[in-house]
Amino acid sequence: MKTLVIGSGGREHALALALSRDPSVTQVHCAPGNPGMADIATLHQVDASDGTAVAELATTVGIDLVVIGPEAPLVAGVADAVRAAGISCFGPSKEAAQLEGSKAFAKEVMAAAGVPTAQARVCRTPDEARAALDTFGAPYVVKDDGLAAGKGVVVTSDRALALAHAASCEQVLIEEFLDGPEVSLFAVTDGVTVYPMQPAQDFKRISDDDQGPNTGGMGAYTPLPWAPYDLIDEVLGTVLQPTVDEMARRGTPFQGLLYAGLALTSNGVRVVEFNARFGDPETQPLMALLDSPLGELLKAAADSRLHEVSAPRWHPGAAVAVVLASKGYPEGSSKGDVITGVSDVIDADVIHAGTALSEGQLVTAGGRVLAVTAFGEDLNQARERAYRGVEAINFEGAQWRTDIAKLAASATTDQSAAREAEGPS
Ligand code: AMP
Ligand code: GLY
User: Fold this and answer.
1) Ligand in nearest proximity to the CA of 10
2) How far, in Å, from the CA of 44 to the mean position of ligand 1?
3) How far is the CA of 42 from the centre of ligand 2 (A)?
4) What is the pLDDT of residues 138-154, one digit of tens each?
5) Is residue 64 domain-shared with residue 129, that is, in the same domain?
């Protein structure tokens, strides 16, 4: 089977690597890809959000399965264009991708499906915003309704700041604050059958101890030794399956990766957000632990016969990804800094995101530059290997967190203590 991965970030590199390890996958192509992906795949230049161009490329190369990584092409309808060309595509239609593309739409679907989530109000004017802030009280949660690359959400106890964010967006959701640790739970679905993956956690703030501004994600790990043992079953029954069923009922089946961002609050599990694609960087450790063929799984989902293949299986053990970001991230990002030491990393995969080649040298080309992703018998060993890899790599102004999976690793034997300690990340 010839596969084509659309996108150029760490998630796409991790997916391409897992596809390359599936014996049924004969070729991996990526568009546009990155220098790390060039080692395992053939790269093609294409505008990832141009459905016609992506479908043409897939047709020309004779691709059997297109996997769309990022949200922007999905919301732009690239999966529809690929399917219209008669090619299997893993990724939801434009309409189904609205689960991520519009937070108001996601809330509407959750309400119809009885899925537990934060109470919310859609607000368009300062008066509506003021009233909603007063209804829910501090801490205030104000979300831009549309896609905002992880930067559209403001959580603050400063009412003026909350109002200013609302005023800067056309339409916002103001919602109840959810306490408790956050979990990312991904499910592969063909619109009917739902196969959850194992839960992962990412670290959204730039600095240790969850300090500083939000980022696209500074690291992730899986599994979560502190999570309740029945979490997957509970989320499948109360969140994933009802959402997939509701989308089918509406005539817009969701086929692809349904990402449930969850808060484990004192009142039970609540959905913080849905995404319509694999998470980044959670995909990096998940793919490092996947013990069943990814290509076969995604192709079966794309062809509406997911029930014919088995659910994903996982290596025992754990995996940790630590992101190295460039100077100035997340406000900006430095480009062109020379990266050294990548080939010195042993016992870990270096997953590229914002890298480029300049005169034969690997250089930084974005905010999140790469993620060192390691497997281990447990979280401690996975952390040791990942951080040894991090120490081997150098570039001017590199920033990384030193506490990825630290609390979870230190408390692997005491579930309740770890859960207390982890807190919201
Ligand atoms: P989202 O873009 O919806 O994932 O929100 C980004 C981040 O904002 C989440 O990962 C949470 O850390 C935080 N957040 C979003 N909604 C809430 C909420 N209702 N209560 C507390 N924190 C939230
Ligand atoms: N890990 C957060 C995201 O992919 O949206």
Assistant:
1) 2
2) 35
3) 26
4) 999 998 887 765 568 88
5) no
For residue range 273-314, list pLDDT tens digits in order: 999 999 999 999 999 999 999 999 999 999 999 999 999 999
Domain span at 284: 182-308
- Domain shared by 206 and 294, yes or no: yes
Distance CA 330, CA 351 (A): 19
Q: What is the pLDDT of residue 243?
A: 98
Mean pLDDT of 364-368: 97
Are 258 and 50 a contacting pair, CB within 8 Å? no
pLDDT at 216 over 50: yes
Closest CA to 100 of 71, 127, 76: 71
N-term to C-term CA, the chain: 39
Tokens, residue 392: 């081997």
Q: Are residues 164 and 46 in the same domain?
A: no
Q: Are 186 and 260 part of one and the same domain?
A: yes
Please count the structural domains in the chain. 4
The continuous run of DSSP H or E covering 73 comes out as helix 71-75
Q: Give the CATH number, domain containing residue 327.
A: 3.90.600.10
Residue 326: strand, helix, or coil: coil
32: Cβ contacts below 8 Å, ≥ 6 apart: 7, 8, 43, 44, 45, 46, 48
Query: What pLDDT score was predicted for residue 13?
Result: 98
DSSP 268-302: EEEEEEEESS--TTTHHHHHHHB-S-HHHHHHHHH
Ligand 2 closest atom vs CA 220: 1
Q: Where does ligand 1 bind, in terms of residues with CB under 6 Å?
A: 118, 141, 143, 150, 153, 155, 175-178, 182, 204, 261, 272-273
Q: Atom 11 (ligand 1): residue with closest C-alpha? A: 272
